[in-house]
Structure prediction request, 273 residues.
Amino acid sequence: MGRGGAGVNLHSKSAESAGTLSRGPGRLLIAVYGVFALAATARAAFQIATKFSEAPLAYTLTAFAALVYVFATVSLSRSGRRWYRLSVAAVGIELVGVLTIGTLSVVDPVLFPADTVWSVYGRGYGFVPLILPVLGLWWLYRHRRTVPT
Amino acid sequence: MVVDGFFIAGTVVCLVSTLICVGAAVIRQPPNDVTILTVAAVELFLLVYAVAGIVRQVGGETVTGELWEFWGYLLTALLVPVGAFWWAILERSRWSNLVLGAVGLTIFVMLYRMEQIWDGAVPA
Prediction:
């Protein structure tokens, strides 16, 4: 359970099969991603099933956000270079998404009702949707050299 | 939303579980019997809440909000402690205790929503 970058390097050999990203703090990160994957998927399903016509664009975006969370949860918990790159892409899209939708929802509240995951930078979810991709990218950046090829 | 006994009991169980698990993580303990048992207590509360929900509905009480949304939340909530337990014991580090601590927090939020749905309160 290396806490610093050096510790992780020391353990990277033995951790190859387990995947360095899902160790230590990474376990908590992935767990929170899992919770958001679950919450966003359920919310998207509910919104699309009951009130899709009210705001089709916003609820389609909730479904997209749900897909990104589900994908990020899976890719972060896998080991290897390929999954690492896919994680960077997924978490990057998530950050761009929350910033774009967050800004748009402030500028034009009618376009994005308050109850989508990324509205007002995820205010309805304690701003966790804004913090999560930043932590995710930081975690990925820290492990840029320790991920097995 | 009406604050009833279920909400108070659930809040206490979730809060105690989260505090003990986070506390264990702070003093660098891997998951042990105590932290795992507090998560089991959260699961037990949810089972009691589910059985009570069935009994109350059979007894004539109605869910003011969407019935299937209430049960969707409850069935999902029942999976959360189990999933967190599985994910936490795969690596026995202090971080796993934070994963277990996240259960209480998550279930508290879900319980809050379930109580809102039961009473028909409009979500913010």
About this structure: Helices of chain B lie at 5-26, 33-58, 67-89, 94-119. Residues 5-119 of chain B form one domain.
